[in-house]
Amino acid sequence: MKITFLGTGTSQGVPVIGCTCDVCRSLDYRDKRLRTALHIAVDGQSLVVDTGPDFRQQMLREYIERLDAVLFTHAHRDHTAGLDDVRAYNFLQNMDMPVYGSQATLDQLAVEYAYALSGPAYPGIPRLTLLPINEDAFTVNGISILPLPVMHLRMPVFGFRIGNFSYITDANYIPEETFERLQGTEVLVLNALQREHHISHFNLGEALETIQRIAPRQTYLTHISHKLGLHSAVQHELPATVALAYDGLQVDIGS
Ligand SMILES: [Zn+2]
Ligand SMILES: [Zn+2]
Ligand SMILES: [Zn+2]
Hints:
The chain has 255 residues and is of the alpha/beta class. The chain is 22% helix and 28% strand. It is globular, with a radius of gyration of 17 Å.
């Protein structure tokens, strides 16, 4: 299994339009963060978690020529706004795109993509097959995936576990049952927005406490705001087993 961080930024991305802070003016490529999304290559399958507004740019950058399915964590726009561009894969692969998410997520997609999901099919629209999932494990073309229910203020969000890899974005609370599902995770991705408290995301301190409890071999932090600081400076402060993710980072994860 190989993961690629398509984007590691919070909803506005980094740099933020109009901001002149040190992070937004940084020339370090690791301080350029598109909206959070992940690509997973596993057992010959090509999956993405979320299709934010930068989806097209991300798939071009990473030369991803095939896409077998989309998994959605939740329906916030910074995770869904690029879904229209799966059209490219509809044409290339001559198939409808399987889209997995909670019923609440799919209901929201049905509103936002009504032109594709209801009414007469207009030529050129994205072709989507919505596949509801609940908290039970499910399989995508033979890949077993375990949902990781977490909370994002009052909104239920799914993280996903495949083998010894677990991915959680947009959370500020992890229930006990989900900590049990995380046991044995060797590589973890977790959101850490900024240093200050935030109403719907773990801040850096909360993320580090959560990581201590899960105790993976290696953790990557994602969904990062310009307020967290320069990549190079923040990375110095972190424990040896924790790294800031950055756009384009690839990690090989055993199986
Ligand atoms: Zn988000
Ligand atoms: Zn800034
Ligand atoms: Zn969100």
